Amino acid sequence: DTLGPYLHDLGKVLYYSDDPFLRTIMVLKPNWIPKVISRVLLEPALQQTGGILNVHDLPRLWDKDEQGQPYDPRLYPLFLRLMQRFDLCFALETDPSDKPGERYLIPLLLPDRPPASLDALPDKARNGQKLMTLYYQLNFVPSGLMSWLLVRTHRYSQNLYWRTGARLTFQDQQAHIELDESKRILRLVAWGTSPYPLLLILKTTLDGLLERFQGLQVRRTLLCVCGQHGY
User: Fold this and answer.
1) Which long-range CB contacts under 8 A does 45-52 form with residues at least 24 apart?
2) Which of 91, 99, 128, 230 is buried deepest, with most CB atoms within 10 A?
3) Is 52 helix (H, G, I), strand (E, B) or coil?
4) Rounded CA gap, 172 and 193, in Å?
5) How do residues 129-171 score in pLDDT, each as one tens digit?
6) For residues 198 and 175, is the Cβ–Cβ distance under 8 A?
């Protein structure tokens, strides 16, 4: 517990002492893990499934390493946990028949277009509801930002995802997140009778992610339609 975190901070090993599962393992060659994970991220079949990884596919994806040696199946949970730790995937439990840890969604492999079943965004507040929109104007879009945001907010999911956005819900309030990569604008929209807590959750999550990037300039603009009289 003393030497592991120190070597981890130096980049000599991978060791997560704060994780009950990962703290039992120390990876002596950190460069080994990206090679393992890339076999999932570059798998064409997963792109056809909309980014859904089934644990039954793991023996095929992680059959042998670069030297032709078979991976020990006991390492599969470790690899999956590391992917979750890196905000590359999260466990799906969208169907009553799903078992915990049986299916995972990889946001980087999601379709580019929103689902056809996605309802249009409200254009004004109705029936006493409020509509709040928070715009993030970025000077550049960090690579992987939306993937991390989708992973961090998946607990509020309505199971409506695409590569640059999602539809969310929390305590009967609705939200929409979407990135316009060409304009470098990330939009958070929340609506309902009391949408501010949900918007604050999304803002706090996104701000935490943006703090990772040095040189990133962010301009925030908040619009609120709070009734019949407009903004």
Assistant:
1) 46/106, 46/109, 47/109, 50/109, 50/110, 50/111, 51/105, 51/106, 51/107, 51/108, 51/109, 51/110, 51/111, 52/92, 52/103, 52/104, 52/105, 52/106
2) 91
3) strand
4) 9
5) 889 999 999 999 998 899 999 999 999 988 899 999 999 999 9
6) yes
